[in-house]
Specification:
single chain; Glutaredoxin; six-stranded mixed sheet; five-stranded mixed sheet; globular; NAD; thioredoxin-disulfide reductase (NADPH) activity; Nucleoredoxin
C-alpha cells in the first residue's frame, strides 16, 4: 500500500493534527512512512488504573523505541475522556506519544464506538493502513511482552496459542492436539462471578446433549479464578478440559487472542480453529436443546430477553412490526434477510466483523421497553438503527418498508450519510 494512501487513511481516522505534552502540534502526515501499527490508548487522567497503566506503558514505549528493530513501525495515540483541559494537559506531559486534541470530542466519540471500547484504560493495536484491529488487549501485551519481542502481536492460530497439556478434572492430562478435528468451545469463566456459575450449570447439560447427538465437541475452560484452590473446586463441576491454572502465560495469551473484555464468554470454533461465534453464551441460553449447534451466526434475529445484550455491542438495525405471535415475524425476517446476508458475506470476505446486526421485533414487553428507552415513535412498521454505546438512533418512518428502502437506509448509514438523533 502506498504511503500516500496510508496517510490519507490516518488523516481520516485521526484528523490532520495531533498534539503532544509540549503543546506542540504533530502533523499526522508526518507520523512516518514506516509506520505499520498504531496503538490507540483510551483513558482518562482521573482514573487510578489509567495512571498506573500509563507508567507501565511509558516504560514499555521507551524500551521499544530504544532497542526494538521495529521501533519506527509503532506509534501510540492517546484518546482521552477527560472533561477538564488542565488535568488532561498535565497527564499529557507524562506521555512520550501524541494525543487527539482536547476539543475534538466528535472524533474521540467515533473512535470509542468504532473500536467498541467499553472500559478504560484500553489499548487497541490497529493496522496503520487499514484500521483493522490487530490486537484488542494491548494491556496484556504490555504486561506479558515487556520487551516487545512478539511485535506486531497479531492473532496466532488457536492450535498454536493453546498448545500444551490440558487437564481433566480427574487430574489426568491430555495434550491439546486431542482437540484437532473437533468443534471447540473456549470458555472464559470464574467461580466468583454469579452469571458464570449459572451458565456453567446450563453448559454442562448442553455439552452432554451435543456429545450424545454424535458431534465431535470439546470445551476448554480458561479460568479467571483468584486462587488455584477455587479453580480446582469450580473445575470439579465441569466434565471438559481446562488450561492448567498455573500456566498463567497461556491463559493470558488466550484472553489476548480473543480480546476478552468480560466473563462469562464462550467462543465457538470450527474444526479448523476458525471462529464461528463469540456469542456462545447467548446461543446456549436461547437453544437449550442444542438444535442449532454449532450456532453459526444467523443473519436476522428475533429480539428476545437473551439476545438483547447484543444491542449493546454495536449498531443494530431493528425493524419493529405489528406482530404478537412468534410466527408472525417471518415476513419481516424474509424482507431483511437477503440484505443482512449480503453484508455478512461482504465483511467475512474482508475478515472483518460485521458493522451492523439485524433484528426484527414484534409487540411484547421487550420491544416496548426498548422503544421507551430509546424514545421511538409508536408507529409500526418502523425501521431504525440503534447505536446504544454512542447513544444515537436513526429512524426511517415511511408508509411502506420495501427491500429497496432497507438497502438504501443501510448503505447510507455505513457511508455515514445519516444524521443521528440522541437516545
Amino acid at each position: 500500500m502506498s504511503s500516500a494512501a496510508m496517510t490519507e487513511f490516518l488523516v481520516n481516522l485521526l484528523g490532520e493534527w495531533l498534539v503532544n505534552g509540549e503543546k506542540a502540534e504533530v502533523d499526522v502526515h508526518a507520523l512516518g512512512s514506516k509506520l505499520s501499527l498504531l496503538g490507540l490508548y483510551f483513558g482518562c487522567s482521573l482514573n487510578g488504573p489509567c495512571k498506573q497503566f500509563n507508567a507501565s506503558l511509558c516504560e514499555f514505549y521507551s524500551k521499544f523505541k530504544k532497542s526494538s528493530e521495529h521501533k519506527d513501525k509503532l506509534e501510540i495515540v492517546f484518546i482521552s475522556s477527560d472533561q477538564d483541559q488542565k488535568q488532561w494537559q498535565d497527564f499529557l506531559q507524562e506521555m512520550q506519544w501524541p494525543a487527539l486534541p482536547f476539543k475534538d470530542r466528535h472524533k474521540k466519540m467515533k473512535l470509542w464506538n468504532k473500536y467498541k471500547v467499553t472500559s478504560i484504560p484500553s489499548l487497541v493495536f490497529i493496522d496503520a493502513a487499514t484500521g483493522k484491529v490487530v490486537c484488542r488487549n494491548g494491556l496484556l501485551v504490555v504486561r506479558d511482552d515487556p520487551k516487545g519481542l512478539e511485535f506486531p502481536w497479531g492473532p496466532k492460530p488457536f492450535a498454536e496459542v493453546v498448545a500444551g497439556p490440558l487437564l481433566r478434572n480427574n487430574r489426568q492430562t491430555t495434550d491439546s492436539s486431542a482437540l484437532e478435528a473437533s468443534y471447540v468451545g473456549v470458555y472464559f469463566s470464574a467461580h466468583w462471578c454469579p452469571p458464570c456459575r449459572s451458565l456453567t450449570r446450563v453448559l454442562v447439560e448442553s455439552y452432554r446433549k451435543v456429545k450424545e447427538s454424535g458431534h465431535k465437541f470439546e470445551i476448554v475452560f480458561v479460568s479467571a479464578d483468584r486462587s488455584e484452590e477455587s479453580f480446582t473446586r469450580y473445575f470439579s463441576e465441569m466434565p471438559w478440559l481446562a488450561v492448567p491454572y498455573t500456566d498463567e502465560a497461556r491463559r493470558s495469551r488466550l484472553n489476548r487472542l480473543y480480546g476478552i473484555q468480560g466473563i462469562p464468554t464462550l467462543i465457538l470454533l470450527d474444526a479448523e480453529g476458525h471462529m464461528i461465534t463469540r456469542q456462545g453464551r447467548v446461543e446456549i441460553l436461547n437453544d437449550p436443546d442444542c438444535r442449532l449447534f454449532p450456532w453459526h451466526p444467523r443473519p436476522v434475529l428475533e429480539l428476545n430477553e437473551s439476545n438483547a445484550v447484543q444491542l449493546h455491542e454495536g449498531p443494530c438495525l431493528v425493524l419493529f412490526v405489528d406482530a404478537e405471535e412468534e410466527g408472525e415475524l417471518e415476513p419481516a425476517k424474509e424482507l431483511i434477510q437477503p440484505i443482512a446476508e449480503k453484508i455478512m458475506a461482504k465483511y467475512k470476505a474482508k475478515e472483518e466483523e460485521t458493522p451492523l446486526l439485524f433484528f426484527v421485533a414484534g409487540e411484547d414487553d421487550m420491544s416496548d421497553s426498548l422503544r421507551d428507552y430509546t424514545n421511538l415513535p409508536e408507529a409500526a412498521p418502523l425501521l431504525t438503527i440503534l447505536d446504544m454505546s454512542a447513544h444515537a438512533k436513526y429512524v426511517k418512518d415511511v408508509e411502506e418498508i420495501t427491500p429497496a428502502v432497507v438497502e438504501q437506509f443501510v448503505s447510507d448509514f455505513l457511508a455515514e450519510k445519516l444524521k443521528p438523533e440522541p437516545i
